[in-house]
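TL;DR need structure tokens for one chain.
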Amino acid sequence: MVKLNKIYTRTGDAGTTGLVDGSRVAKSAPLMAAIGDVDEANSALGLAVAVLPEGAREAAMLARIQNELFDLGADLATPADPDHGFGPHDMALRIVPGQIERLEAEIDAMNDALAPLTSFILPGGTEAAARLHLARAIARRAERAAVATAETRALNPHALAYLNRLSDHLFVMTRAINAAAEGDILWKPGATR
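>> reply
TL;DR here they are.
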């Protein structure tokens, strides 16, 4: 259970922040960029949820994803355990294969109802889809930052896979939302020449 009595601690005034194990890293470290990008993606998802109709199945999927993005941030902020590696245990919140498998099942279910792509699509359409496209782009940035971090610091491979699947999920969801409206906005190569 998280309990925050005081929002500011002054412990980060020198440009460092604490990880779950108590160690400190520079706020400019690639790991912190990845964690910040995950937080930004989560915030963008909140904007999308705010314009979805109440009770929409997409809102329920996104609520699960938003919660999992907090789990993902905790995972990234928790170094590998000497005894458990990146496996889940009482002292570490980890992304697990079942979460990735659920994303894949949701992607497949949404995609099965869509016409195959015949062109690249432009970000936009309904307001909810446009907001999800922004969240998708931020999720891709979070993935790039996490992959860059993993080049110098061990990260849970399931966390990396989750980020990869997340942007795919959001892309297919934008298509599903737009299909229920006026459809995808197709790219027209060279249309303004």
